[in-house]
Amino acid sequence: CGKTFATSAHLKYHTRTHTGEKPFMCSFEGCGRTFTSSGHLKYHQGTHSGEKPFKCQHPGCNRVFAWPAHLKYHMKTHLGDRPYKCSYEGCGKSFYVLQRLNVHARTHTGERPYTCQVDDCMKSFTTAGNLKNHMRIHTGRERPYRCPFVNCRRSFTEHSSLRKHKLTHTGEKPYSCSICGKTFSQSGSRNAHQRRHSFSPRHYECDYGGGCGKTFATSAHLKYHTRTHTGEKPFMCSFEGCGRTFTSSGHLKYHQGTHSGEKPFKCQHSGCNRVCYICIHTGERPYRCPFVNCRRSFTEHSSLRKHELTHTGEKPYSCSICGKTFSQSGSRNAHQRRHS
């Protein structure tokens, strides 16, 4: 290897990257995760106990973290420093840490270096974390993170998902827009909101098959659209006997609710027990079209998603018999019934 270290302890720790040895095991019931150092074990155990000893010192920020690396990463959001820029033409994204840039680059290259070796599964993933979550399908520990709030029985495959879910109980909105100050419960929602302040014309163009030519506002929309050409549906339902596949994790999540019967979004309006209907009472239309010069708004995110297809021209639903494409699944289903 040839690497040199200042202390024998650092050498010993480095050697474990070659041997794969992880001698420090978590003693919490049902966990059993192992680590290369006692320090990493200690930080990990904080995820069970809820301990977060690393506090942000930035004025007005009360965020706390279980890991010092997470605090260090968070501090860069205050500095606005994104030194790692994507070099792919037309992308322009930049990141706080090099690791995030490396993971992002795989959306351009298609690289999936982490492969499941269980029972010849061979599914591959862009990150080790995604592989780890997938492995729970094989091990049976599919949703190990349970919500601790009374009368809530929800559980999750990832600790980060549990953390986001807890915000629905506490009402906390720790992420604020640096432009207008609006607060959000999730960083992704805040980031999407901030992009709308400086929304630019669509510039991600589909070149599938030598020239589809459709353009999209984000690389994520382009990636999703490309699957209408390839037929790729990488997200599979893990419920026994189902096996349905979907083009996005969001569609899979909604589908899984048909198995569990889960309807977590309850209307709080007096005397109403419906789900997802609160906007009918308030008249609120919180989902606004982000496209330039369009002022349409909607009561449901699904309605906005359908409306956006009128801008993009995307027709993601294809007839399995003749191949004709449609912008809405209902239109495709009605068309297919005419074949029979």
UniProtKB/TrEMBL annotation:
GO terms for biological process: regulation of transcription by RNA polymerase II. PANTHER family: TRANSCRIPTIONAL REPRESSOR PROTEIN YY (PTHR14003), ZINC FINGER PROTEIN 143 (PTHR14003:SF23). The keyword Thylakoid does not apply. This is C2H2-type domain-containing protein. SUPFAM superfamilies: beta-beta-alpha zinc fingers. One of its GO terms (molecular function) is zinc ion binding. It comes from Nematostella vectensis (Starlet sea anemone). Keywords: Metal-binding, Nucleus, Repeat, Zinc, Zinc-finger. InterPro entries: Znf_C2H2_sf (IPR036236), Znf_C2H2_type (IPR013087). PROSITE patterns: ZINC_FINGER_C2H2_1, ZINC_FINGER_C2H2_2. Residues 1-23, 24-53, 54-83, 84-113, 114-143, 145-174, 175-198, 204-234, 235-264, 287-316, 317-340 form the C2H2-type domain. Transmembrane segments: none annotated. Pfam families: zf-C2H2 (PF00096).
